[in-house]
Amino acid sequence: MITTTTVEWAPGRTVTLRHLRGHRSPAVLLAHGAGVDQDHPLQVAVRDAIAAAGFPVVTFNYPYKEEGRGRPDRADVLLDV
After folding, report:
1. Does residue 39 register a pLDDT over 90?
2. Within 19-62, where are the H helices?
3. How far apart are the first and last CA of the chain?
4. Using an 8 Å Cβ cutoff, are 2 and 19 in contact?
5. Contact 12, 5 (CB under 8 A)
6. Average pLDDT score, the chain
7. How confident is the model at residue 29 (pLDDT cuts 50, 70, 90)?
């Protein structure tokens, strides 16, 4: 089961997290690459495979994808998220 949560990471700026529970550790934080988002078929396949192996996994969209922009944010913004 996927849990979706919206998190405010800076005033007025949010990102969407998707979390799949697992019984093993550590949890895996899976970031998407430039040009795709957390719902891209490859990202979903990797996420689901990690979860099927029993690991909790969290995916998220970087702000530029969340806000519908095509160009990635500066590195400091990406790291802040």
Report:
1. yes
2. 41-52
3. 24
4. yes
5. no
6. 90
7. very high
Residues 21, 8: contact at Cβ < 8 Å? no
pLDDT tens digit sequence for 54-68 = 999 999 999 999 898
The pair of three-digit structure tokens given for residue 43, joined into one six-digit string: 């990202």
CB 19 within 8 A of CB 56: yes
**Which residues, at least 6 apart from 56, have a Cβ–Cβ distance to it below 8 Å?**
19, 20, 21, 22, 24, 25, 27, 28
Query: What is the H or E stretch that residue 22 is in?
Result: none
Q: What is the pTM of this model?
A: 0.82
Q: How many residues does the chain have?
A: 81
